[in-house]
Design goal:
mainly alpha; about 80% helix; Arp2/3 complex 21 kDa subunit ARPC3; about 170 residues
Length: about 170
């Protein structure tokens, strides 16, 4: 459990670095990939531990601090999304690149919908449907396409760090 926590923190820090540095230089259509969400989802799909949604709260709070938005918005949406991801794993899931990409696409869309729903509570003039169609859905598709690369790096990190210490 402790090794999984340290692995998750390590990938979360890599996600922070990618969000801060890489997203400033690489954007497709003005969309910034949420690397921390992808790492947390892939780890949750690989290890359905109850620890990871709580690490996701920390990742969400870091995203909130970086976005200069409402504090707790990403924290809540990451937590709910990772809890739902744990339930999705129990119903159906195959550990292949295609299935992980599709699952991340769906969970990213769900997280965006939750974030916009919470934000809509604070701003009544927010056109949620328009934002979902112009930013959330394309971003979810983009994150689903990037997921196999992240999955490969998570598998590499697991082999390196989570192997048995014999």
């Amino acid at each position: 459990m402790m090794r999984l926590f340290i692995l998750a923190l390590g990938f979360m820090l890599i996600g922070v670095w990618l969000n801060i540095v890489f997203n400033n230089y690489f954007q497709l259509g003005g969309l910034k990939i949420n690397w921390m969400l992808i790492f947390m989802l892939v780890l949750t799909f690989r290890h359905p531990s109850l620890l990871l949604p709580f690490v996701g709260v920390l990742a969400g709070l870091i995203c909130d601090a970086l976005s200069h938005g409402i504090m707790g918005l990403y924290g809540i949406s990451f937590f709910v999304t990772l809890l739902l991801a744990r339930q999705v794993i129990k119903s159906f899931y195959a550990n292949t690149f295609f299935s992980v990409g599709i699952a991340v696409l769906g969970m990213s869309f769900f997280e965006g919908w939750i974030s916009l729903s919470i934000l809509g509570q604070f701003e009544e003039s927010l056109n949620q449907f328009s934002l979902i169609m112009t930013s959330t859905l394309p971003l979810a598709v983009l994150q689903g396409l990037v997921t196999p690369i992240i999955l490969q790096s998570v598998i590499w990190g697991e082999k390196l760090y989570l192997r048995d210490a014999a």
